[in-house]
Amino acid sequence: MKKWYEYLWIFSAVYLLLGFFNILFAWIGLICFITPLLLSILGKGKIYCNTYCGRGQLFELLGGKLKLSMNRSIPAFLRSKGFRYAFLAFFLTMFIVMLFSTYMVFAGARDLKEVVTVLWTIKLPWNWTNTSMVSPWIAQFAFGFYSIMLTSTILGILTMIFFKPRSWCVYCPMGTMTQGISMLKYGKKVK
Amino acid sequence: MKKAAVNRKECVACGVCAKTCPRGAITIFHGIYAVVDEKLCIGCRKCEKACPASVIGIVEREAAS
């Protein structure tokens, strides 16, 4: 019988759809940021990636079972430590920029922008949801956070198609961080 | 007889190999890299094909001493 955690791909798929329905659901995605970090800090290694990551499972399903992957080897530079850390640095920078925009709206220096930006350049108007029940900064964070989640999903789907299903895992910033934390904790045991 | 060998320096510890292994011979060492239990590995190549980083190879076992 399948275990409950083998269905977490449903969570990831539903999360992406909920963002189209109401952008405020984007906040739920923080679970995918906090859980893996917490687990590795608590000494569980990469158990999140290994067992619970819904996005990884979704790529396995689309690329594996549904055969949407060309199953080729990933170019060596994409799996190099240099690229992985550079991508993590870039990702964190974009995250901080997003937090800054949220702060500017919170401080009243900027107006809420009802836009989802994919691949850091393409701005999609996203103004069909009523976000007036929350403070503008809460909505601004949702737009920014959903932009990050959607962008990384698009990148993951592209590398899933061209390389192996879970190619995203090779350069996933969360994975790079949890592996880094694990190395800091247990690196001395490495033979 | 052949066996799977992981390039530990480039392994991203994603765990795809461990999930794929029909013998349960692979574990992720503290979230750092994959380790193959040579006693269980039968060299079937499933992990080699599944590894998203392509850092698993199949090598000849050294003759038992």
Helix content of chain B: 10-25%
Physical arrangement of strands within the biggest beta sheet of chain A: 1-2
Reading off the top of the CATH hierarchy, the class of chain B is best stated as Alpha Beta
- The proportion of residues in beta strands of chain A is under 5%
Quaternary structure state of the chains depicted: heterodimer
Return the CATH architecture of chain B. 2-Layer Sandwich
- Mean pLDDT, all residues of chain A: 95
Spatial arrangement of strands, main beta sheet of chain B: 1-4
Q: What count of domains describes the coordinates of chain B?
A: 1
Task: Give a concise summary.
The complex is a heterodimer of chains A (191) and B (65). Chain A is mainly α and 191 residues long. Chain A has helices spanning 8-21, 31-41, 47-52, 54-65, 81-106, 136-162, 168-171, 173-186, and strands spanning 115-118, 122-125.
